[in-house]
Amino acid sequence: MIVRELRDLIGTALDVVGLCFNSRRLLVARDGQSYSMHDTIIKAGAEIPLWYKHHVESVYCVAGEGELENRETGEVHSIGNGTFYCLNGHERHVLRAKTELRMICVFTPALVGPEIHDEDGAFPLLTDEPDVTPSPPPVGSEPARVTTMVRDTSVAD
Ligand code: 9YT
User: Which ligand 1 atom sits nearest the alpha carbon of residue 59?
Assistant: First the structure.
């Protein structure tokens, strides 16, 4: 069982600060599940073009008011407390925050942790690999494990 408190993530590497959002990554790839889960705050006034080419994202809004534009169809949906959407077709979209939004986001495959959006509004597909540095761990400590950012080049952009 994994039990975490949001307050324990604040200010750590899993509290990822973007230009107009804060993504607190509660569950990430190294936790061994098929998805990651984030508690994300989008700043009021933000307009974010996104395109999750490598991931499927599900989003449940629990606070705030905003708008979701599907750039493939031109459809615009209001977002508020209780709105859910799933980008199961990797749709290009724009998220607009009229007020601060709080969104619970689930990504498949799981994010490693430090991902930020690239120029297309996508997260790169990273792999979580153990550190292979052949130095012995200090006596009495757990084996060291660090997250390395490795671009998976088998997936075309
Ligand atoms: C809702 C959304 O896509 N926001 C961008 C941030 C992302 N969801 C994240 O890192 O949690």
Answer: 1
Ligand 1: centre distance to CA 154 (Å): 24
pLDDT reading at 117 higher than 50: yes
Q: Specify burial of residue 95 (Cβ count, 10 A radius: 0-12, 13-18, 19+).
A: buried
Closest Cα to residue 102, out of 21, 17, 35, 25? 21
Q: What is the Cα–Cα distance from 122 to 138, expressed in whole angstroms? A: 39
Is any ligand 1 atom within 6 A of the Cβ of residue 27? no
pTM exceeds cut of 0.85: no
